[in-house]
Amino acid sequence: MRDRFEAAGAVPVDCAVLQPAEVLLDLYGEDVRTRAFVTVDPVRGEVMLRPDFTVPVVQMHMAEGAEPARYTYAGEVFRRQEDHPERAPEYFQVGYEVFDRADPAAADAEVFATFAEALAPYALRPVVGDIGILTAAVWGLNTTEQRRVALMRHIWRPRRFRALLDRYAGRVPVPASRTALLAADDPMAGAGPMIGLRSEEEIRERIEVLRADAAEPPLADEQVALIETLLKVSEDCPHALEHLRDIAVDMPAIGAAVDRFGARCDAMAARGVDVTHLSFEASYGRTSMEYYDGFVFGFLCAQRPDWPAVATGGRYDALTRQLGQGREIPAVGGVIRTGLLVDLERMREAGQ
């Protein structure tokens, strides 16, 4: 697989197995500890076993890479599997990453078509999505910036996102404990000794933020209904595009993102991808690593619905901005879990 990506113009690169934990913690917060193996080096401080290649490849490119650039790599990654103990916490990835600012739609199509060609012998089911349409919808909500930021933070946690949306819409009652806390003249009175890392001043500031939010009117039912309709879009690309354009009439904030989806479909068709039979799911990619912010895709094994996606990928423009120290470049890529391809070949040999 790596040879195929090299033949497509990618430069082979490697990344250290031990990566600085600080970078990923800054990007994703303490939640990343539930997915990565973290340890302490006596000289380098806190480090983690490489959870993926994308972040270190972006760091490398932003520090020294020429433009445009294409990279490929192969090696082990390490992920804790608390929710899926049957899955191996250590497995191989082969990846292909494209950094090119000339034509994002063409780059998306190039990466997807390259993966589709490489995986064609395995009869996997491809699916695409677009996180950028949902983020545009959230930023376009008629509510406070604080609420929009909170919803954005939980886009990759569907249950939390749903709960937060219901709370902002006034669909669930405010817990009695919070009502009492916000109604108190001095919420800190009788709180007892301070425990933990937050100072009293930080706690008081947080309470004031909650009070301000409680005074805000609920999200309009129409806005919530549009978000719900958007998340339910699941059909072939041409019909999904038509459906999303209908939604954009009442939610103009997503118009530009929907146009980008349309341009990507055209670019894919020009690459020989049969978009008329390609599945689009608006919610796809919301449980992956949080750096995808636009186009996302996956290749699934119909015979093994219990497996994770055999290959995944997407666009991560914002990640280059966060790691670029003032510089940024559009970027898109993906990875293949090659061990699952080996398992598929064994299943075929066994006649399964």
From TrEMBL:
- What UniProt keywords are attached to this protein's entry? Glycosyltransferase, Transferase
Positions bound to L-histidine: D52, F53, T54, R79, Q93, E97, R286, Y291, Y292
User: Residue limits of the Aminoacyl-transfer RNA synthetases class-II family profile domain?
Assistant: 1-259
InterPro entries found in the cross-reference section:
aa-tRNA-synth_II (IPR006195), aa-tRNA-synth_II/BPL/LPL (IPR045864), HisRS-like_core (IPR041715), HisRS/HisZ (IPR004516)
Cellular component terms per the entry's GO annotation: cytoplasm
The reply to whether S-adenosyl-L-methionine figures as a keyword in the UniProt entry is no
Coiled-coil-forming residues are: none
| Pfam families assigned | tRNA-synt_His
The terms under GO molecular function for this entry are:
glycosyltransferase activity
The keyword Glycosyltransferase belongs to this UniProt entry's keyword annotation: yes
Q: Which PROSITE patterns match?
A: AA_TRNA_LIGASE_II
SUPFAM superfamilies recorded: Class II aaRS and biotin synthetases
Tell me its family. Answer: Belongs to the class-II aminoacyl-tRNA synthetase family.
> What is known about its subunit structure?
Homodimer.
Q: What is this protein called?
A: Histidine--tRNA ligase
Question: What organism is listed for this UniProt entry?
Answer: Sagittula stellata (strain ATCC 700073 / DSM 11524 / E-37)
